[in-house]
Structures are given as structure tokens and as C-alpha cells.
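Changelog entry: the Eukaryotic translation initiation factor 5A record was regenerated in this release. Current contents:
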Amino acid sequence: MAALEADFESTDEAKSTYSTQAFALRKNGYVMLKDRPCKIVEISTTEGGKHGGEKVTIVGVDIFTGDEYKDVFPGIHKCDVPIVSRIDYEFVDLSDGVMKIMAEDGDFRDIKLPQGDVGHEIQSRHHRDEVFLVTVVSSLGEEMVIGAKSAEK
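Regenerated C-alpha cells:
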């Protein structure tokens, strides 16, 4: 039975990333750099020399921290690509730095109010009693509110 549980866990983990060759990656896509999920902001290729193949230089920004990472790979190198989701939730309430949000299916959940401009915008909309949505990005077990927008009626 333990072997089956181990197989199940590895299957779950496999769903969080997939592999593709470095030369198939594109700007504005995603890639794992230094074990962090990053959005590709710059990508360039150099032709191989006499004995080497094509090299791909990738600059990415961590989707959660904003840190910038750079790495160089052979073009045929298998790079891990994180599966990133963006979901809009209806804002319900804010209390002690925690937002209550509601999914389309009516399920409620709590999530931390983000710092900075996004957090200030959410607080301002809440104080004005606006009806609005918050966008949550998630990948590899991490999640963060990245924006707020008016709810369409």
C-alpha cells in the first residue's frame, strides 16, 4: 500500500510542472529558474560554435517575489515549466489583513491582503463599498493576489 501512496504523491507533483526544451520557450511564458516560478521577460539564442549547440539565455521575474533571475541552457536542455493559474474571485470582506473571497461556484475562502499598491487599492475599494473582483495567481503551492478590477454585471 505504501508504494501506491508514493506513486500517487509523485503524480500530484508531476501536475505542478512539465518539461519542454529550452529553444521552445517564449517571452511572456513561464519557466523555473533557480527553483522559482518565473515569467520570461527576455530570451535570446546564440548559435553554437564548432563543437557546441545553440544556447538559450533566459531572464525571468519570480511571479511571487519580483526577483529577477538569469540562466543559460543548451537549446535541447529540458526546462521545467510551472503550471500557473489565474482566477478571479469576488471580494466579500476584509478583516485584520485577511480577505474573504468567493469563487464562481459559491465557495468562500480566506487569503492574505497583499502589500503595496494592490493592497491599498483593495482597501480603498472596500471602504467605498464597491463590488469588485480580485485576481489570484497560484503555482507550486504558493498563491498571491495580484490585482483588483470592477465586477462586470
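Helices lie at 2-14, 116-127.
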